[in-house]
Design a protein that fits this description.
Organism: Halomonas beimenensis
Number of strands: 11
Strand order of the largest sheet: 2-3-9-5-8-4
Order of helices and strands: EEEHEHEEEEHEHHHEEHHHHHH
Distance between the termini: 76 Å
Protein name: DGQHR domain-containing protein
Oligomer: single chain
Radius of gyration: 27 Å
Strand content: 5-15%
Structural class: alpha/beta
Pfam family, one: DndB
InterPro entries: DGQHR-contain_dom (IPR017601), DNA_S_mod_DndB (IPR017642)
Shape: elongated
Helix content: 40-55%
Number of domains: 2
Largest sheet: 6 strands, mixed
Length: 346
């Protein structure tokens, strides 16, 4: 006789479909579920993509250190030989491997399974589930698309803003460091970007750089093996001051017009292109010249003056990555590194 998992459940009816809302132990959920990949598996209900190992690794680490999963894993029970049984006390789920397709939550289950292998105590972790039965591929696709297109993820600016108050185990360390640097740029009295970072809840206005844009631009500099780590600059205060010094060099030629709406650097493309230039040109140059990141040294090789200011009109209407690239290229044109032949050794 097939062993069953007996649990309390609530039956929910919505239009043409019904499903059970319940909770399952991680070990049981891992056992009964599987992924049906569209384009690989020919069975009904195959709507999933291939698993992403990087996402699985991140979820594994999150499970080992935090493990809060309030959103339901969504299953489609397809084992006709061993159907789910319902009675007045709840439901009995046959404990048969690979009986339920994962409609939503495949990476969570794979990551949790990886965490369970490292820490078997997590087998008893309770997870919320919504269980359909016998859905067609079309019906599974409708649910999958509803979750992944209609129910939009929160804006990245809000995510980065919440990093200030969330537990350390949850946040991305590089994004959190970048968030702290951006906060300093927005609040330090000597920062060219004082009040120019648009945070969640701020009034809509022309100009300014969204928090998500600024964090996403700076994050590659501060992440593991990023530009700063490669040159041994890993202390927050040093990273912050280098970035501020760089933007001060850019701001000085503008004088009192830096905050004007025609300045390219107070828009997303200007900020992103400038950070790309800092990362790929200026930081390596400064490091090769005695690790000198002082403002005076930077200004000696960036020949931006009143006649070569970069304006927003130069990238207005330019789409995608091309706009930051134009800013980057314009800064490269102003870059005059002082490398004497005697400095080169091979």
């Amino acid at each position: 006789m097939t062993e069953s998992i007996r649990i309390n459940a609530i039956k929910v009816c919505q239009k043409d479909h019904s499903f059970y809302v319940a909770k399952l132990r991680a070990a049981d959920l891992i056992k009964i579920s599987y992924v049906a990949v569209r384009g690989r598996d020919r069975e009904q209900g195959a709507v999933q993509r291939f698993l992403n190992s990087r996402r699985i690794s991140g979820i594994k680490d999150y499970t080992l250190h935090q493990g809060a999963y309030p959103a339901s894993i969504i299953l489609n029970w397809v084992n006709e030989e061993h159907p789910i049984q319902e009675d007045e006390d709840g439901i009995a789920i046959p404990a048969v491997e690979e009986s339920a397709q994962l409609i939503d939550g495949q990476h969570r289950i794979a990551g949790i399974a990886s965490a369970v292998r490292e820490n078997p105590e997590l087998e008893s972790l309770e997870l919320p589930v919504s269980i359909y039965a016998g859905l067609s591929t079309k019906q599974c696709a409708n649910i999958f698309l509803s979750i992944n297109t209609e129910q939009k993820p929160v804006p990245r600016s809000l995510v980065y803003d919440l990093y200030q108050i969330a537990d350390e185990e949850i946040v991305d360390p590089a994004a959190a460091r970048a968030r702290d640097i951006v906060d300093a740029l927005n609040s330090d009295a000597d920062s060219p970007y004082l009040g120019e970072i648009k945070v969640p809840g701020s009034p809509r206005r022309k100009g300014g750089v969204a928090l998500s844009t600024a964090v996403s631009a700076i994050k590659p500099l501060v992440e593991s093996k990023g530009a700063f780590e490669q040159v041994g600059v890993e202390v927050f205060e040093q990273q912050k001051e280098i970035i501020k010094n760089f933007f001060k060099v850019l701001a000085d030629p503008y004088g009192g017009t830096w905050n004007n709406k025609d300045n390219a650097f107070i828009y997303a493309s200007g900020f992103t292109g400038a950070i790309d230039f800092l990362s790929n040109r200026l930081i390596p140059y400064c490091n090769n010249h005695g690790a000198n990141y002082k403002k005076e040294f930077m200004s000696g090789v960036i020949r931006l003056n009143r006649n070569s200011l970069i304006y927003q009109d130069e990238v207005k209407g330019v789409q995608g990555k091309e706009a930051p690239k134009r800013i980057f290229d314009a800064l490269v044109e102003c870059f005059e590194p002082n490398t004497q032949p005697a400095d080169i050794q091979v």
